[in-house]
DNA sequence: GCGAGAGGTGAGAGCGCTCCCAGATATCAT
DNA sequence: ATGATATCTGGGAGCGCTCTCACCTCTCGC
């Protein structure tokens, strides 16, 4: 555990002023000083001004730990990312989410505590942390089918918002589960519809890992438009370029006559593109290709640039934070905020 | 104190057990219980076991706020990223750094508070936070020439480690400044050396923004091997694919006879690659190209795959955290940890 | 001019924890 | 046994803050 460090006072750090000293300097009581520091209602202007001045002169900043101790409010929320490699480091996905969250949170003076889960044992550590009452709420990401986190959070009564539609059994009907997701299914439909409008008839798809709802939802969107399609036109990838390439190879072997591909992520599309070229297929002439995500650094820089389905990832992050904050603000009605589906949009470039 | 409505208690959250209740259940004093919970030296095994059992039964978790209040230790460190767009969202750079940091920090039971700076006013907010004593130390990233953050941190006596060599005047000789950087100069030399060994003689370079040391150091490395090169062979980019492309266009206009390019980042290299192809130059036959960073999702997926200089970003993050923790552990000798330069390495693919 | 009410203010009690110090107990030599 | 020493243990004092509640001012209406 922690090292028995005796009063880890930093060298050179003067003792920070306390409310007490502010009060003294302003010639008021600690209670009055506190009132001024927080909101300041019910204090005569004259005194209020005095206190403000004392605060300035002393450079007072409230001690959050002391405040938390009595208010039980941490002004901090946890962002838990349970991403086993794959996407986290190939997409800027993650960073964009964080940015949206950061914006919303700091506007409300909340801090963001980032918890990365990489191995099984991390779950325990994170669970302990969430149960420890160090944060007021949690934003959970990239949950796979049977992720223990939401249940952990619920058990300790920690308000939670999930990124991406949860897919475990029963999640469907669980009113307590609040999540933000983009319209994966609608986006996929848009992609396929676009390929169709180009006159393509043998449209294949490369899916993400099918234990994630974002993958299955996109596949469902594809099937919405191609209800009785040949199963040979469907191959499973893993959201990486490599996986996309492998899936493409499979598809080409099974249906050399395919004339379009909808890849469920730009990263996979970039892998597919490579394989297509290696097989001498021209894109988009021979095979039209549509991706998903609109990750700038991939989609705009492949050769040819990728037509893709855009989702506003930053907005999703912002939304998640907003939902959580709203819930924290009104604990009376814990069910108030409901899940949100954000729209997707077709971005035409040159691959289809 | 009566409890008509237990403060901001979350619905459904039972009141958390306190050390007091653990002590009572174990039949010892609060002090003894505390000893067992932290380290546990100086308590007889029999009692210790009793306390441990009480902890388990009650599901006790220490209240960090209370602990912080007395120990002045937060078990939390701030990670400040002051990255105006550019790199943050095109490279997985950032995520990898965070991963390294996260690993090291969580091993030492420290939390990571992430602070993103996007606009000028954010500096004030972050400065206030750092001064607020909420964290025990800070990891600072992507500082540009006259970033106010290090000075802020120093003023409040907050131990700090910087990612990337600081470049402001005087930083050179400031022994207090601890940073971790990769061997940018050596890496650049390696890149140019490699191009030379291929027989190239008209080697151009695309630099990053020259207000960052990572850019200037790489340029210095280039100049080490080409001391009296034609200035027309040097163009400034901005670490984005777009910027790399623009720089490449310039270079081609100025020196159509160039036969090699060293781009100071993979992202810029990918942009340059595009422009080269658009101008009908074959890579590597006509123009050999070397990047920098070895960002998997870029370097491995361009056409042809990029030969580049690899730096171990995750390791850098880990190192930064380790340095900071070490410094926190021994405040007595604040100068003990010194800056570290991590090695770089040539990764040969097909572009050179 | 006086009482009632409204509005301001301060004393003090904790929040849950750590750590100092004194006292209790056990251990060991003499 | 007896004292001296080493080892454990618990009481209690805060850390800095918020919040209740009683009190103390004013102001106003009559």
CATH superfamily placement of the largest domain in chain A: Response regulator
Count interface residues per chain for the largest interface.
A-B, 74 and 79 residues
Question: What is the top-level CATH class of the largest domain in chain A?
Answer: Alpha Beta
CA-based gyration radius of chain A: 26 Å
Structurally, the number of domains of chain A stands at: 3
3D architecture notes:
Two copies of one chain form a homodimer. Chain A has 352 residues and is of the alpha/beta class. Chain A has three domains: 19-62, 434 Repressor (Amino-terminal Domain), CATH 1.10.260; 76-182 and 314-341, Response regulator (Rossmann fold, 3-Layer(aba) Sandwich); 184-311, Response regulator (Rossmann fold). The first copy, chain A, is 42% helix and 15% strand. The first copy, chain A, has helices at residues 19-26, 30-37, 45-58, 64-71, 93-107, 120-131, 149-155, 184-197, 213-225, 241-254, 266-278, 296-299, 313-329; strands spanning 76-82, 111-117, 137-141, 160-163, 179-182, 203-207, 234-236, 260-263, 288-290, 308-311, 340-342, 344-347. Chain A has a six-stranded parallel β-sheet, with helices on both faces. In chain A, strands 7-6-8-9 form a four-stranded parallel β-sheet, with helices on both faces. Chain A has a two-stranded antiparallel sheet with strand order 10-12. In chain A, α5 (93-107) links the parallel β1 (76-82) and β2 (111-117). In chain A, α8 packs parallel to α9 (213-225) and α10 (241-254) packs across α11 (266-278). In chain A, 51% of the residues are buried. At the A-B interface, α4, α5, β2, α6 and α11 of A face α4, α5, β2, α6 and α11 of B. The structure holds a DNA duplex (30 and 30 nucleotides).
């Amino acid at each position: 555990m922690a090292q028995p460090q005796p009063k880890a006072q930093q060298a050179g750090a003067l003792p920070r002023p306390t409310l007490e000293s502010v009060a003294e300097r302003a010639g008021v009581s600690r209670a009055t000083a506190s009132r001024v520091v927080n909101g300041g209602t019910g204090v005569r202007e004259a005194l209020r001004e005095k206190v403000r001045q004392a605060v300035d002169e002393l450079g007072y900043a409230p001690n959050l730990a002391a405040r938390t101790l009595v208010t039980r409010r941490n002004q901090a929320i946890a962002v838990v990312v349970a991403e086993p490699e794959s996407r986290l480091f190939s997409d800027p996905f993650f960073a964009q989410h964080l940015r949206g969250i950061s914006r919303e949170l700091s506007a409300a003076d909340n801090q963001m505590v980032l918890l990365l889960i990489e191995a099984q044992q991390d779950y325990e550590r994170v669970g302990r942390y969430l149960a420890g009452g160090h944060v007021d709420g949690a934003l959970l990401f990239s949950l796979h089918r049977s992720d223990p986190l939401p249940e952990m959070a619920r058990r300790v009564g920690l308000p939670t918002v999930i990124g991406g539609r949860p897919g475990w059994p029963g999640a469907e009907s669980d009113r307590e589960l609040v999540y933000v997701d983009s319209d994966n299914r609608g986006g996929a439909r848009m992609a396929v519809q676009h390929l169709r409008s180009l006159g393509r008839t043998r449209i294949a798809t490369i899916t993400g890992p099918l234990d994630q709802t974002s993958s299955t939802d996109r596949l469902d969107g594809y099937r919405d438009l191609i209800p009785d399609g040949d199963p040979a036109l469907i191959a499973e990838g893993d959201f990486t370029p490599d996986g996309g390439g492998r899936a493409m190879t499979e598809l080409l072997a099974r249906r050399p006559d395919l004339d379009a591909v909808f890849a469920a992520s730009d990263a996979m599309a970039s892998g597919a593109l490579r394989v297509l070229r290696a097989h001498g297929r021209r894109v988009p002439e021979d095979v039209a290709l549509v991706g998903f995500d609109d990750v700038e650094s991939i989609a705009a820089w492949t050769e040819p640039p990728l037509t893709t389905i855009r989702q506003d990832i930053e907005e999703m992050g912002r939304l998640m934070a907003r939902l959580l904050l709203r819930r924290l603000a009104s604990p009376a009605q814990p069910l108030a905020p409901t899940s949100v589906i954000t729209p997707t949009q077709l971005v035409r470039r040159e691959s289809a």
